[in-house]
Design brief:
Helices cover 75% and strands 0% of the residues. It has 527 residues and is an all-alpha fold.
Length: 527
């Protein structure tokens, strides 16, 4: 029965995605990379949610909550503020310029080399870190939660290899051969499933604790472990409260406002109103995120009395403990969809970046749109195979979620720096952007992977989010000094491409303000 439910839900998603994309011309850049600029608010919000939520968060954040409590919700709730900023300030500028990729703005603002370097940084991050991590954590979760080694007679390692290639192949079909619209539509359907399935786990967990009563379970949980409901992290926590005002917001702004795999959904909006409403709806859903990626970890701490060997076992163990057998197939399909979404979204963005910013720009400038799409797909196949080969070898790694957040700083802060300076100034030259990218990558790498472990020691070094903020300010200052000494000959002006209606959503600022106040209220309530 579980297998039948899993296959039925997964097949339904595929059919809906196929039916929704039949009318889109996938042989043009706009049709393939941006779904024909046809995405509506609901599709954008669903795709944003599923692109973001995968097992490295569902399993990883719940593991952190098991160890530290609700304070790790910062990774979720503060995303809402970053999406509000993106909706109000960044998206109008992106759509006004008719952008397909974020690096395209950098070409207009600085020069082609800056765009190419940025695209290469994005692609390196996706290929070496993000895609293999998504495949590995997803495969580990599927294999352990649903007893694949026991059911098939394979070892855990063999099960991980099988899941990696299964997820990778199916995800590649969506991302490479279906284009962005297929990815976004499948994400939206899976988002509904994730919200339902994700909320079932804390529901059954609280009923388990409260002997059939959810409210009794909440009371018991809070009375037994009130320390787990403290939102303000101490200096030794994984997310100290002070980092909320430094690197945490920078990371969130990079991720939701400039990361190609994320912002591509909003760039594909049919108009600015739909894009802004999609971002605001996604922001609201992120505020509810801790119910799915934080609360289950605290429930697991109570049920297993804090005795699990590894914190990352909290969510898989909780699922197997409280989820009724009849819902196992549905939940497996939902989890599979979440894993698939993060993988195929990053892969689709990699195809976009390579096709438009590398192949068309440097390899074959005379290529027509059909050829660009063709070679972009070819690159995607190579990238997917590489990720599938690398992923199983991450089995020996530990603390993948924390490692992923830290190593992303190598390229996230430099890219955010040059985009912010690019939009807020008119005379800073291209050479400043190149130096900003280079210095950002080198200084962060030296800081986190040489000075921290080998010179000062982990206990005597600033939190990596503080380091990000320090380097962000330093890079901005460096760029402004260069701009003062060697300014552009003319002021930069952002041209309106007229590809998209940029009439803003009437209540974007009011709704954004309400969402921000809700986030602040949550922190005050749990402080």
């Amino acid at each position: 029965m579980a297998i039948f439910t899993f296959l039925a839900f997964t097949l339904a998603v595929a059919v809906i995605a196929y039916m929704s994309t039949r009318s889109t011309d996938e042989n043009t850049s706009e049709g393939y990379f941006l779904g024909g600029r046809s995405l509506t608010a609901g599709v954008i919000a669903g795709s944003l949610l599923l692109t973001n939520l995968s097992t490295e968060q569902i399993v990883g954040l719940n593991g952190s909550a098991y160890s530290e409590g609700i304070l790790v919700m910062a990774w979720e709730t503060l995303a809402a503020i970053a999406m509000v900023v993106t909706a109000i300030f960044l998206l109008p500028k992106y759509l006004k310029g008719g952008l397909t990729t974020v690096p395209q703005f950098l070409e207009d603002r600085y020069d082609t080399k800056t765009k190419t370097i940025t695209s290469a940084l994005f692609l390196s991050g996706y290929a070496i870190v993000f895609l293999p991590v998504v495949l590995y954590t997803g495969s580990l979760a599927i294999a352990t939660m649903f007893g694949i080694p026991e059911a098939t007679g394979m070892t855990l390692t063999q099960s991980i290899w099988a899941c990696v290639w299964g997820i990778g192949i199916i995800g590649s079909i969506y991302a490479i051969f279906g284009g962005l619209k297929a990815v976004a539509v499948s994400d939206t359907v899976n988002a509904v499933g994730l919200l339902i399935g994700g909320l079932l786990i804390p529901y059954f967990g609280l009923r388990y604790i409260g002997d059939g009563s959810v409210m009794s379970g909440i009371s018991t949980l809070y009375e037994t472990h009130p320390d787990k409901f403290e939102s303000l992290g101490s200096k030794s926590a994984s997310v100290p409260f002070s980092t909320i005002f430094t690197g945490m917001m920078l990371v969130q702004l990079f991720y939701w406002g400039t990361n190609q795999a994320i912002i591509q959904r909003a760039l594909a909006a049919k108009n600015l109103q739909e894009g802004q409403k999609g971002l605001l709806l996604a922001a609201f859903l992120k505020i509810l995120g801790p119910l799915i990626v934080v609360l289950p970890g605290i429930i697991a701490y109570y049920i297993f009395e804090g005795n699990l060997e590894k914190a990352d076992q909290a969510y898989p163990k909780l699922v197997s403990q409280v989820l009724p057998v009849g819902l196992v197939g549905f939940f497996a399909a939902v989890l599979f969809g979440a894993i698939l979404s993060s993988f195929n979204s990053a892969l689709n963005s990699s195809v976009t970046l390579f096709g438009l910013d590398i192949y068309k720009e440097h390899i074959n400038p005379d290529a027509d749109e059909k050829t660009v799409v063709k070679y972009g797909k070819g690159f995607g196949i190579i990238l997917a195979i590489a990720a599938m080969l690398i992923a199983p070898f991450l089995e020996k790694a530990e603390s993948i979620f924390s490692y992923l957040q830290e190593i992303n700083g190598c390229y996230s802060i430099p890219i955010l720096t040059i985009i912010v300076v690019g939009y807020l100034t008119k005379r800073v030259p291209a050479i400043a952007a190149k130096i900003g990218l280079l210095s950002g990558v080198i200084l962060y790498t030296i800081s986190q992977f040489i000075l921290k472990p080998y010179v000062f020691g982990d206990d005597n070094y600033p939190h990596f989010l503080h380091v990000m903020a320090i380097l962000f300010v330093l890079n901005v200052v460096i760029m402004l000094i260069i701009g003062r000494m060697y300014p552009r000959d003319t002021d930069f002006t952002l041209e309106y491409s007229r590809d998209v209606d940029i009439t803003p959503y009437r209540y974007v600022k009011e709704v954004g303000a309400i969402l921000t106040l809700v986030v602040v209220g949550i922190y005050i309530y749990f402080a």
